[in-house]
Amino acid sequence: MLIKLANITKDYVDEGVPTTALRGVTLAVSAGEFVAIMGASGSGKSTLMHVIGFLDKKTTGQYFFDNENANEFDDANLAQIRNQKIGFVFQAYNLLARTSVLDNVLLPTIYTPHLDVKATAKKAREILAKLNLSHRVDYQPNQLSGGEQQRAAIARALINEPRLILADEPTGNLDSHSGQEVMEVLQDLNEEGHTIVMVTHEKYVAECARRIITLKDGQIISDQKVAERHLAKDGLIK
Amino acid sequence: MRFFQILKYTKNNLALNKTRSFLTMLGIIIGVAAVIAIVSVGASAQDLLLAQVKAMGTNLIGILPGASDDQGLPSAVFGIEVTTLKYEDALEIRNLPDILAICAYVTGRGTVGYFNQTKELNYTGVMPEYPTVEDAAVATGRFIKQEDMDNMARVAVLGSKAASDLFGQDFPLEKQIKINQIVFKVVGVMAERGASGLQNQDEQVFIPLRTAQKIMLGIDHVAYIRAKVDKEANIEPAIGRVKEVLRFRHHIKDATKDDFSVRSTAQALDILGSITQALKMFLAAVAAISLIVGGIGIMNIMFVTVSERTREIGLRKAVGAKRRDILWQFLMESALMTSLGGVIGIILGVSISSAIALGVNSFGYEWKLIITPLSIFWAVFMAASVGLIFGLWPANRASLMSPMDALRKQ
Asked: Are B235 and B307 contained in the same domain?
């Protein structure tokens, strides 16, 4: 099992109001899966993804990542896991402004010890080529379309060959055409063996995955395989 | 992350945010430049004043009316006119051993006119030995003589600039000028001396002391007396004898009741030194304020950009930066900015000091450019500390947040 959650809860205080985002989530994800987490806004789906990706800390419960107990990780371990085992794709891309696409893709590698700088740069160019961004390598994010920016962000997520790709509403800021491109990329990556956990609130996007987990009020209300999987390259029907 | 790699990324980062980097550096540049320039001006001004007193000669004794203790200021400084010193006192002192020359002074200000040319000038009533006492020389004609004193003659000797201002190309000797409507005959012109002390000696008009007292001012006392001693070793005994003579003449039995004070140039130097030292301290305080202002400038720009940077820190943490990496990055950024700003500030501060020196020297003063390494050290040290503290503080706060909280920051 790559991810194993048992009875995870998450409480936080939002502008003085105590909120419970997750109320006992139990979940397992194997390597190679493509899981979509669905739910209305406020259902806790994003929080769940942040906990899985160690961007946020759980309040109680057990979390095993790659068969290791997350309770035993200190901040430096967590940083190392985020760096080498997890790749993030955000809804708002979160590319560094005034920084070239290539340097954005290389950002995680600054924090990776013992890396061959030249080989890494070559790898970044290869990934960008695979994502049809070869012609944008030296561009800055604000010169790119939304779809291109998100693909650059995916390239950044891939640079350290992570065990897990986490995508938080990856098509949320995109038009349907760009959204389709991004989903195509994610499906291809899954075909190549990458494990993907994606948060979305749109059913047609979720149906590109192989398994859909639905959250409501911080609890899982359904967890099922996708019967009729959409293939993004055939077009996404809203 | 390797050191040179951090350096490379830091350099790129600063170059990418030119405006922010420049504004941050501006605070440091202004702070450092101001401190260096202000401290330099203070030191140079002190040097100038002390040098001018020294130039008067170190074997001079000054006798002032009114009592004052050895360290304190004479009462004349506070605008109190004390009338206890007389012309006759000066004559008596002249007869003491080791005294080479003596001069008593009174001063006044008046309108000096030659034909239709008039000028507001200081006139000084002096005695015939003035040139010896003050190391001054007559360029043309003669100086005031004892007969002029005895007859209360209305003769005048002009400072070089006073002469050229009044007469232009005309030959001044034997010409008549009016000082406050009283007619004087010009008998001599002094050689040029340059600006000295707070008064430009070249702009003075010298007249016989007795004439100034009786005809111009209607007084019986003198403002002060200066005596030249043959050599420095004789100054202390001479001061003692001067005091004895004056006590005898003024019927003073108790030395604590003296109505005069006697000082050597060395003592005057000490006093002036402590005054200018206080001035320097004051200037240093002004400089410190400009450092604080510069520091606040740095702080402002750091706080303005903190939300943008918080999101950047969130992203960096999300892709694997450890807290240490974040702090290193910001430390390097701040260090690079402060050292660059410090260097520019030093160059600017030295340039300003040099420009001031050039400017003052063009007025004929001997202004030495003095830049103390200590002021450079403190300026850069303070500015760098401020830059580091205000650069690291927000970064440290952001680095302690969870990556998600930092990413969400608006």
From this structure: no
| A91-105, A162-176, B375-389: least confident range | B375-389
Cβ(B229)–Cβ(B61) below 8 Å: yes
pLDDT score recorded for residue B126: 94
Q: Is B322 close to A111, i.e. CB distance below 8 A? A: yes
Q: What is the pLDDT of residue B275?
A: 85
The ipTM is 0.92
Q: In terms of domains, do B28 and B162 share one?
A: no
Sign of the C-alpha dihedral, residues B36, B39, B41, B47? negative
Is residue B403 less than 8 Å (CB to CB) from chain A?
A: yes
Q: Are residues B355 and B305 in the same domain?
A: yes
Interface of B with A in 15-74 (CB under 8 A): 16-17
Residue B348 reports pLDDT greater than 60: yes
The reply to whether B321 touches chain A by the CB within 8 Å rule is: yes
pLDDT the model gives residue B397: 82
DSSP B16-52: HTHHHHHHHHHHHHHHHHHHHHHHHHHHHHHHHHHHH
State if pTM tops 0.90.
no
* Residues of A contacting chain B (CB within 8 angstroms): 50, 53, 55-57, 75-76, 79-80, 82-84, 88, 90, 94, 96, 98-99, 103, 107-108, 110-113, 117, 156, 160
As a whole number, the mean pLDDT across chain A is: 91
**Which residue among B1, B404, B405 places its CB closest to the CB of A111?**
B1
Chain A residues touching residue B5 (CB < 8 angstroms): 110, 117
Q: Residue B76: its pLDDT value, please? A: 58
- CATH C-level class of A31-57+79-234: alpha beta
Which range of A189-193, B332-336, B378-382, B402-406 scores highest in mean pLDDT? It is A189-193
CB contact burial B380-395 (16+ within 10 A = b; e otherwise): bebbbebbbebbbebb
Q: How far is B306 from chain A (nearest CA, A)?
A: 15
Q: Domain of B364?
A: 3-53+275-408
Q: Which residues neighbour A189 within 8 Å (Cβ) at sequence distance 6 or greater? A: A154, A158, A165, A196
Quick one: tokens of A113?
A: 């010890």
pLDDT average, residue stretch B234-258: 89
